[in-house]
Amino acid sequence: MTMVASILFRVTIGAASVGAVLLLGWVAAAASGPDAFASVAAVSGSPFGLFMWFGLTWVLFSFLLNGARHLINDAGRGLTIKSANLLAQIAVWGPIVLAVLFWVVLFAAGKVSL
Predict the structure, then answer these.
(1) Who contacts 97 (Cβ-Cβ below 8 Å, separation ≥6)?
(2) Which of helix, strand or coil describes residue 13?
(3) Which of 68, 73, 77, 101 is 20 to 30 A off residue 108, Cα-Cα?
C-alpha cells in the first residue's frame, strides 16, 4: 500500500501540472476580456469541466494528505509497517472521500449545478 500511495502521489504531480496550465488559461482568458472569459466559464461549468475540477480537487486533497504523511514520516513517526500502511491507506482513499464530500456540499449549497 505504501508503494501505491507513492506512485499515486507522483501521478498527482503530473495532474497538478495540467491544472497549472488550465489555471494559466483561465487567467489569460480573464485578461483577454469578457467574451474569452465567458467561453472559459462555459467550459468550466460543462460536465467535462466539472469532471476536470473534481479531478483537480482530488489532486489538492491528495497533496494535503500525502504531505501530512511525509511530514509525519520526516518527524520519525509512523515508520512501523502497520502505521506506514495505515497512513498510506489514508493518503490513497482519503482524497477520494474528501473530494466527493466537497462536491456534494457544493451541489447541495447550490453553488454548482449541471
Answers:
(1) none
(2) helix
(3) 68
What's the rounded Cα separation, in Å, for the pair 20 and 17?
5
Residues belonging to the chain: 114
Amino acid identity for residue 46 in this structure: S
Helix axes 2-32, 47-74, angle to 10 degrees: 130
What is the pTM (predicted TM-score) of this model? 0.87
Joined together, the cell numbers standing for residue 62 give 491528495
Whether 29 and 36 have beta carbons less than 8 Å apart is answered as yes
Q: What is the CA radius of gyration of the chain?
A: 17
28-56 tens-digit pLDDT: 999 999 999 999 999 999 999 999 999 99
* CB-based burial label for 49 (10 Å; 0-12, 13-18, 19+): middle
Residue range 50-108, pLDDT digits in tens: 999 999 999 999 999 999 999 999 999 999 999 999 999 999 999 999 999 999 999 99
Which residues, at least 6 apart from 72, have a Cβ–Cβ distance to it below 8 Å? 78, 87
